[in-house]
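Minutes, project huddle
Topic: does the predicted pose make sense with S-adenosylmethionine bound?
PN asked that the exact inputs be recorded in the minutes so nobody has to dig through chat later. Recorded below.
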Amino acid sequence: MKLYYFVTPHYQTIVDRYFLPFMPSDFDLREARLDQQVERYVFQGENWADLCLYKADVIVQAVRENMGSNILFTDADIQFFRPCRWQLEQLLEEHSMAFQNNLAPGEPGFEINFGFFAVWCDAATLAFWEAFRTLLRSNTKIFDQELVTLMLRQVPLKWAMLSHEEFMCPGRKWEPGQPLPVTPNLAMHHANWTMGIESKLRQLEQARAQFVRLDSLLNEARVDRTLFNGSALPYDGCGSRINSCRGLYELIKENLTPGSTVIETGTHRGISTELFALYTKQVLTVDTDICFEARDRLSKYSHVTCLQAESIQLASQLPDQVCDAVYLDTAHTYEHVKAEILAWLPKIVPGGFICGHDYTLHDPGLMKAVNELLGQPDKVYSDGSWIFKLPDASNTQTHSRTDGVSYVKERATELVI
Ligand SMILES: C[S@@+](CC[C@H](N)C(=O)[O-])C[C@H]1O[C@@H](n2cnc3c(N)ncnc32)[C@H](O)[C@@H]1O
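Predicted holo structure (tokens), as shared on screen:
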């Protein structure tokens, strides 16, 4: 499959560091280079139209030259994580084109990304891109991405939107350091929604680091139960499944956002804490013994606070409604779980989540306590992670979540015992 990529000298660092080194070998590369007349092309800024017209010419020419084949067009500010040609080709068996989604799930509206799309070349797609070029030439006020999105709404072509899970961009305004929606299924990442090469490089670096960490966390045993419980438990042959972080990962992805504030009780080695850190804005984790491994693992995250404290005692020192979610993973006896739920429930904002680990038959006391106080969980994940969504209370006066974050951060040192 031919891959046409657009590059200006301004993007060369990205091409050399991220675009080419991780390129799957089953693409046949075709460079489309626009020698820069201006210092740089700013997204939808002055001179952007020149870049768009150049792209339109290349696309029309490429479609014309590859009739009866699939081709891929990409910007150069992307990186691959695995081969994905078969996937694109499979989609093009039933669709004329497939585009990256430019908006994160939950963002209002509809917008394709003009920086990554695959095309089946035939008379219909050629006509589409010729019309695009004509419209772009005659109307300098409309931008490329906007125009393609508009045209797709009106033409009778069958086209597909690529899944955000596999073909990712931040999907909303992004600043360096903010979490990215990286998943274990990621095939490629488009570094957009941020301005300037430096920021794009930071995003590319962060997505790769996040992917590598996620991959290793999902493969790492979450809790060394033989150490923690003092004896090995019978797992009915599903030990590796129960001990993996995949369930917790699903819980986080389905319920939390990059803006969420989370409190976790039971840090242990800090593996679950790190998973929260990769996807949320602020994490407070508490354990009676924060071990060296956990400190070391978590020290690189400035938005994680580790407190050496007793869980219920800590809860009694915090004001109500300070976080979006509490994840309970300390002792699993009936009495303790009950006391912990009662202590932590008021600390969660209305509409937030109370959740925890080990809702399995191996911990009957924990299940009984959860069922008695809360009822059957809304969902139990493959690792025994359980979750309840608390009712929204739109009329209730609540602390703002930002207040909660600052409070926890400011008082972190005082609260350490
Ligand atoms: C099951 S491990 C936590 C595992 C961790 N969440 C993970 O997934 O990697 C339980 C931890 O809870 C801590 N712990 C037990 N009782 C506690 C309490 N009352 N307050 C705070 N921490 C407690 C233990 O020291 C232990 O490290």
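Observations noted during the meeting:
- The chain has two domains: 2-208, 241-415.
- The first strand starts at residue 2 and ends at 7.
No decisions taken; revisit at the next huddle.
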